[in-house]
Amino acid sequence: MKYLRLIKYPGAKTSLLHDIFRVVKAAQPSVIVDVFGGSGLVSLNTAGIQVVYNDIDPILVNMFRMIQQHPEQIMRKLKSLLERATIPGGIGHDKKFPGTGMAREAKALRKRGGKGNPGSRDDIPSDPLELALRTLYRFNTSFGGLGNTYATRKEKASASYLRKTVFDLPEMSRRIRSWKIENMDFRDLIKKYDSADSFFYLDPPYPGKQWYNVNFLDVDFRDLATLIHGLKANYLLNVDWDVPLFLEIFGKPSFVKVYENANGRSETATKHYRRKSFYTDVIPGGKNQH
Ligand SMILES: C[S@@+](CC[C@H](N)C(=O)[O-])C[C@H]1O[C@@H](n2cnc3c(N)ncnc32)[C@H](O)[C@@H]1O
After folding, report:
1. Fewer CB near the terminus (10 Å): N or C of the chain?
2. CATH of 14-56+184-280, one of 3.40.50.2000, 3.50.50.60, 3.90.170.10, 3.40.50.150
3. Best CA proximity match to 4, nearest among 45, 49, 40, 53
């Protein structure tokens, strides 16, 4: 099945989407709240339901807000970046400087916006549109982490990733146009949107990993568990199966699924398979449990 994706993001849930939407379909909510929205993968692939996208990282939130407010400008600028890039075999390939295009564009963008990680607080261009463009570019052409590894030898792959993003951007921006976009801590967001016709999709950061600009401590997982117990809304939480802390905090999962690792660079790099625990108050394929 083909899904819309805007950026490469650590911990994006592509292989879980089928199971996530099975539960959402069973719950039949009017509103889906993507509490830890990240790359927006779940929000982008939700159709026919009001979406609330949230993330605590203002860099991601700015990117979605700019696409919402200035889709044409973003499209034009991203297209021109792709065209100016001298990718071997790609549009605008400059035979005199083979293989330098994407790296050169990245360098230019970096110069305009400062250096370092796209999410780091000391690295924020004052123009939100420029920042959004840079975030999009970096998260499309990097190889993992927070978009801070630049394309060099793998420029061709980067270019085709970016080209697909540009191709799908009109459809994605059409969807993003109707989102409500929030930039809140999950505790406040859940209190704000908890109602019987809402559905919370919960994909928190991984314990002990510093993948994001804001990561989770044990106390955050405990707060999440407390909030879940008092919800009026339906919810689905997914976490890694092999973390004892989760059994202690959330108890026995509603169901567990095994997924093949798409490549050696994914979440559990040394393993071919990974197990995910799902917690939900919705019975897949049946009525919800409220
Ligand atoms: C596992 S990622 C989500 C990935 C997302 N589901 C996707 O498919 O791209 C977790 C996200 O939670 C965000 N986050 C961390 N702490 C948060 C908090 N206290 N409240 C809301 N979001 C938070 C991080 O910025 C990160 O983007």
Report:
1. N
2. 3.40.50.150
3. 45
